[in-house]
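Troubleshooting: if your tokenizer reports a length mismatch, compare your output against this known-good record of 176 residues.
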Amino acid sequence: MDAVELVEASKEYEKQAMSYRQEYIDYGEKEINGSSGFIEFDSYNEWLEKIAVQKNEECSLTDTPATTYFMFRESDNKIIGSIQLRYHLTEELLKDGGNIGYGIRPSERGRGYGTKQLSLILPKAKELGLSKIMISCSKDNRASAQVAIANGGILAGEGFDEDEGKITEIYWINII
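Known-good structure output:
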């Protein structure tokens, strides 16, 4: 696997980000996990405004600050994935969502990038003072479950994604 790095989403990456988004659309996918709804925005600037607001939200019972990152492959400066780190868990995130959401561009899946991306975000979670993080994934998404397990995730139970109408698995990862 080529070297990769996490970079906070910003205006500087608009061209690569729009290409990343377009690939999901071309593959017929309806969402980009770990991107805070990026696929729904035709305007990169409007999406950046949304994630800027999220980063600066006040912690409450219903809202949590979050930072959205892209994972770039260094050899070709291509966005390989997106990942969002949520600073605390709301009641809704405890049922479905967790502290971290992540996605890998369709053409790059199955190459270990998801596992690497999650490993890169864990130190950032630790910097926020989190001692453990929760990840949820659809029960039928074995690739995502394997990403969590490869990073120390322990299956703790199941939840339900009301939007998708699917059972989810809930994993906890202790951050050491």
